[in-house]
Amino acid sequence: MLLTKKNLTLGVSYATGDLAYDIPSVNLYEYRFYEDLNLKSNWGQFTAGHRFRLEQRFIHKNLNTDQFQNWFRYNLNVSYPISKTWSTYVFNEIFLNLNSSKTFAQNWTGAGFINKLNSNIKLKMGYFQIKQPIKTLKRLQLGVILNTDFSKKKK
Question: Cβ distance 49 to 65 under 8 Å?
């Protein structure tokens, strides 16, 4: 195993709630501050990414309830090239709520394919499950990945 890349990331995000498709949750939203340690390594043709994340969540549950929570997340993502433009991936991410007596909050597990259109744009298609203590959600994942690293010099 060869460690090829490591970085630290600080960020802020805003998210609205997706509790269920049949129950309105218009008042559920949160702000998150996060700190990431990202490690990338190669195992032959396999690439493994590890992300360790601490989050500070400011959650607005409804008109009368606001909460603050600390979370820890660990993500393992392994990819394998099928061709020059196609690759496959699997991932698992565990979510721990550090402010709860029941620390385990959820686990995301999934797999899919990535199609590299060019050096700056990829399409992602996959399936994943969100396992929570009392229910399991199943999701299709469709995405566009944009490379925004403009520090690399063009040849």
Answer: no
